[in-house]
Write a structure and sequence with these properties.
globular; two-stranded antiparallel sheet; 1% strand; Sodium/glucose cotransporter
């Protein structure tokens, strides 16, 4: 099979870029004409987005480098349980829609730090703002840029750094043009392209193998299992059930990157429907990304191997599974569609984090510093605020190699050090109005200290011994669960009656007979189907 791009492939990719920039220009001129650049439109899409756009954006924004490169790489090297993060996401999106959405939308906030200020105090807001920005740099931005470089190198033969810079510039242009509304509607287009390309490569790969039965017969039983022993170094089942949900609650329910899409909904019902739609979509990555990685592994084995993984320093680079499968297996046209899907996923993820970062910097830092700033100035500042973050992301990429595991595990492990205290403060704070701002401060600071210590120790663990080495060796999912328990204990321990609890908390904390469970029958049935889908996957891939 010809591994070079054909005219048809280039045509498909060109049509994709044309469609993306057409959407961006349409909303750019429409926004400037209709509302004179209002900040609500730029940062929250005018708060009138429909459920299907929100659900598609939740999926497309999330499907970034860790999925395209990392999940396929995990499947290729035998880390099939990495798909558990995607499966659990379906359940946690239901939690977002049923539990968190009403509180967030009733509060009328732009950002998650702003909500934390309403629940606790201004210190909590400042803390979450800075932690979120730093987290975006060392996880989302840097890893996505790195994946963009990998994709450009593997698919187009472009130098890594040139590819990384190109993906930043292309995405930055259309994000700056239109704000969240452009991001969301381009996400919908990108979701369609991504699904089309991913389905094509999965079906074509299975066809090349001779069907699903051949895939199963040519792999060990453990290769297609979602469950590993409790002492597994990467994905123990105890960590999956206890630690992974902590990361999920932080990411899907408290992170600006995700929640900003729900805040743009017309109302609570529309936001909830969007999360349910997103939950259905999150059942797909197992088949769209992990399975192709397994297919690539099988096709690379034996004397008649149809694809070949590249070697880096004598080690097989499994993170190249999907790009290599695309270039060495697919025919013209389909190859272009898959490449467009890969680029779509990277760009949707990066555009979302750019917009989220600019929202945090503008609304939680700049506006607090200069509260009298008008809407036009806020939008202009938001448009300019991503450049420095991009530079920091590029600078962080070389350090990613110091953290163990493939691309997907690298991202998840870093998140395990950041997420537990934030998840604890949000989750416990919403369900218990007696939790005080002082307790939240102590929990956040303790969590930050312990998490940072763990990250530093992991980077230098080869030089450690004794307790410090053992501490650095704790599985990242087990560590996330333990840190979460520590933070929850601190929240209750330091929540004394000495600190008054304001009456304004009634709208943003749970109470008996609260509105969060009031819903129509259709949404209940759809949510039940999502849960049934999760259980089915757990049983089939036991």
């Amino acid at each position: 099979m010809n591994s070079e791009l054909q005219v048809l492939d280039i045509g498909v990719i060109s049509l994709y870029f044309l469609a993306v920039f057409s959407i961006a220009l349409f909303f750019y001129f429409r926004r400037n004409k209709s509302n004179n650049g209002q900040s609500e439109d730029y940062f929250l899409g005018g708060k009138n987005l429909a459920w299907w756009a929100i659900g598609a954006s939740l999926f497309a924004s999330n499907i970034g480098s860790e999925h395209l490169i990392g999940l396929a790489g995990a499947g290729a090297k035998g880390d099939f349980p990495a798909a558990q993060f995607e499966i659990l996401a379906s359940l946690i999106l239901l939690l977002l829609g049923w539990v968190f959405v009403p509180f967030y939308m009733k509060s009328g906030v732009y950002t998650m730090p702003e909500f934390l200020e309403k629940r606790y105090n201004s210190w909590a807001r400042s803390y979450l703002t800075w932690v979120s920005i730093v987290a975006y740099v060392i996880t989302k931005i840097s890893v996505t840029i790195a994946a963009g470089g990998i994709v450009f190198t593997a698919l187009l033969g472009i130098d890594f750094w040139t590819g990384a810079i190109l993906i930043v510039l292309i995405t930055g242009v259309y994000t700056i043009l239109g704000g969240l509304k452009v991001v969301v509607y381009t996400d919908f287009l990108q979701m369609l392209v991504l699904l089309g390309g991913s389905i094509a490569i999965t079906l074509y790969g299975l066809g090349e193998l001779g069907g699903w039965g051949e895939l199963v017969s040519k792999t060990e039983s453990s290769y297609l299992s979602l469950w590993r022993s409790a002492d597994d170094t990467s994905f123990p089942w105890t960590g999956v059930l206890l630690g992974a949900p902590i990361l999920g609650v932080w990411y899907w329910c408290t992170d600006q990157f995700i929640v900003q899409r729900v805040l743009s909904a017309k109302n609570i019902d529309e936001g909830r429907k969007g999360t349910i739609f997103g939950a259905f979509l999150k059942l797909l990555p197992l088949f769209l990304f992990v399975i192709p990685g397994v297919i690539a592994f099988v096709l690379s084995n034996g004397p008649d191997a149809k694809i070949h993984f590249p070697m880096e320093n004598g080690v097989i680079n499994y993170d190249a599974a999907l790009p290599i499968l695309t270039m060495q297996l697919l025919p013209a046209g389909l190859k272009g569609l898959v490449i467009a899907g890969l680029l779509a996923a990277l760009m949707s993820s990066l555009s979302s984090v750019f917009n989220s970062c600019s929202t945090l910097i503008t609304m939680d830092l700049y506006k607090k510093w200069r509260p009298q700033t008008d809407d036009k100035a806020l939008v202009r500042f938001g448009q300019k605020s991503t450049a420095f973050l991009v530079l920091l992301g590029l600078a962080w990429i070389p350090l990613m190699n110091l953290i163990e595991g493939g691309l997907f595990q690298k991202l998840q492990s870093i998140q395990a050090y950041i997420s537990p205290p934030i998840a604890a403060v949000f989750l416990v704070g919403i369900f218990n109005k007696k939790i005080t701002s002082k307790a939240a401060k102590y929990a956040l600071l303790t969590g930050a200290f312990v998490g940072t210590a763990r990250l530093i120790l992991e980077l230098i663990k080869e030089n450690l011994s004794g307790f410090l080495y053992d501490f650095a060796q704790i599985n990242f999912l087990h560590f996330a669960f333990l840190l979460f328990l520590i933070c929850v204990a601190i929240l209750f321990l330091f929540s004394t009656k000495k600190e008054a609890v304001g009456k304004e908390l009634s709208e943003i904390t749970y109470s008996k007979g609260h509105f969060i469970w009031k819903e129509n029958f259709t949404n209940l049935i759809l949510s039940a189907l999502v849960i049934l889908g999760v259980i089915s996957l757990w049983i089939v891939f036991v």
